[in-house]
Amino acid sequence: MTDSQKGVIALITACTVWGLSPLYYAMLKHVPAVEVLSYRCLWSLAFFSLVLMVQGRLSEIPRALKFPRQTLLILTAAIMISANWFGFIFAVQTGQGIEASLGYYIFPLVAVLLGQSVFGERLSTMQWAAVALAAAGVSVLTLGLGVAPWIALALAGTFGFYGLIKKKITLGPLLSVNCEVLLLAPFAIGWIYFMGSSAGGDNDIGTHLLLMLSGPLTATPLVLFSFAAKRIRLATVGLVQYLNPTLQFLCAAVVMGEVVTRWHILAFPIIWTGLAIYTLSAYRQDAAARKLSANPETSGTI
Questions:
Q1: d(Cα 220, Cα 159) in Å, to the nearest integer?
Q2: How far apart are CA 38 and CA 64, in angstroms?
Q3: What angle do CA 159, 107, 148 make, to 5 degrees?
Q4: Residue 124's CB: how many other CB atoms inside 10 A?
Q5: Rounded to an integer, what distance in angstroms lies between the CA atom of residue 22 and that of residue 36?
Q6: If we measure between CA atoms, which residue out of 163, 159, 147, 165 comes closest to residue 105?
Q7: DSSP assignment of 77-136, as one string?
Q8: Taking Cα atoms as reference points, which of 283, 59, 48 lies closest to residue 184?
């Protein structure tokens, strides 16, 4: 099996775990969302630390947090990802999984728009068209349902800003996320102790085992995604990632029985069309970049 094939398998596995995660969080409906988030941070910290310890890299943590500017960036990233995690958990627990899936569908387009706004990245005509279609789809839902899909917008926005901040952090994904949950740990411990279910004592053994599972469920897909991203083309990564919100949508609509309104039926194809245009644009850019790297003499100017 080639490295590329291994990468595709790893990416599909990661996206499948993410896509089926609503089924996991639905089993924790009896635990408040903030408490689930707190346990997720702590068990993720334990799991990531274990991975780093096996790799002999624990000493990198204090070095990563040595510089105030980098620590502030990591803390900001931690706030963004914790807000994203909370929004997703809350959406699943309150029967809004379809809207959560919408957030991860429109995230790539939000990220492109943020890149243009913050970094001045130029968008092609196709990319502008994709963003416009996403905006049209969100507008259809807003007008049809009488309220904006705030959860979807919040999930896409927090994850988009998380990606922007991560661009400025030079640490690898494992070390970076470990530092993020480490900075969140005091808040998580405080919430569980003062506001949780009697410091977790009211939760049965089965619930505690489920909460423990949040650690590997958070860490494993990230490890697999990092493995895949180094071995396959960017266009492939972008295309396969849509498996995540698609599975989330199916979990919500088919397994959890959430209602799919006519407005969803109108809006989602508009957004999917935008994603198709965006994916085609990304594929063309990736192909052009590979052609340029294969023929470096063509990159010079006359």
A1: 19
A2: 23
A3: 95
A4: 15
A5: 13
A6: 159
A7: HHHHHHHHHHHHHHHHHTT-HHHHHHHHHHHHHHHHHHHHHHH-PPPPHHHHHHHHHHHH
A8: 48
* Of 222, 253, 176, 174, the residue nearest 13 (C-alpha): 222
pLDDT of residue 194: 84
- Taking alpha carbons only, the member of 194, 212, 183 closest to residue 79 is 183
Coil vs helix vs strand at 37: helix
List, in order, residues 6 or more apart from 236 with CB less than 8 Å away: 8, 11
pLDDT at res. 301: 40
pLDDT tens, residue order, the chain (302 aa): 788 888 889 889 999 999 999 999 999 998 999 999 999 999 999 999 999 999 999 999 999 999 999 999 999 999 999 999 999 999 999 999 999 999 999 888 888 888 788 777 777 888 888 889 888 989 998 989 888 899 999 999 998 898 888 888 888 888 999 999 999 999 999 998 887 664 455 678 888 899 999 999 988 888 888 788 777 776 677 778 889 999 999 999 999 999 999 999 999 999 899 888 888 887 777 677 667 666 655 444 43
The structure tokens 């914790």 sit at 82
Q: How remote is the C-alpha of 12 from its chain's centroid?
A: 15
Residue type, 156: A
Helix then strand then coil, % of the chain, to nearest 5: 80, 0, 20
pTM over 0.85: yes
Nearest to 131 by CA among 287, 273, 17: 273
Q: From CA 203, how far away is CA 110, in angstroms rounded?
A: 38
Which residues, 6+ apart, have CB-to-CB distance to 121 below 8 Å? 112, 115
Question: Whose structure tokens read 């105030």?
Answer: 68
Token readout for 168 is 């400025």
